[in-house]
Amino acid sequence: MDDKYANAREHFFAAVRTLAASSDPIQTRLIDANLNVLHVTLDEFDGDRELKFKFAKILDLLAADQDNMETVAIETTAHMTDFEAVKVADLICDFYYELT
Q1: Which of 2, 24, 32, 63 could form an S-S bond across to 28 if both were Cys, CB 3.0 to 4.6 Å?
Q2: DSSP 24
Q3: Which long-range contacts (C-beta less than 8 Å, at least 24 apart) are formed by 86-90?
Q4: How many Å separate Cα 13 from the centre of its chain?
């Protein structure tokens, strides 16, 4: 396996595991998964425009305000509808699949 995206794979795997391993409401699971997703930076995908764009989309859905992403992501996710939260969770899972 390529080490190029090892950090991103590690954190996205943890995020996917968090999303799948609980019976909590989807918003709660997504808040917990965010803690892993936010450990990844856009700079990690400098060589791949497509991955960078897809990761940026996930970040935009989680936290439009880039100054305090963790707090904003928690607040944003807590107020998502089930449909919106599932959409973001699907994007996280799809992104992890592209990293593997």
Answers
A1: 24
A2: S
A3: 86/26, 87/61, 88/30, 88/58, 88/61, 88/62, 89/19, 89/26, 89/29, 89/30, 89/33
A4: 10
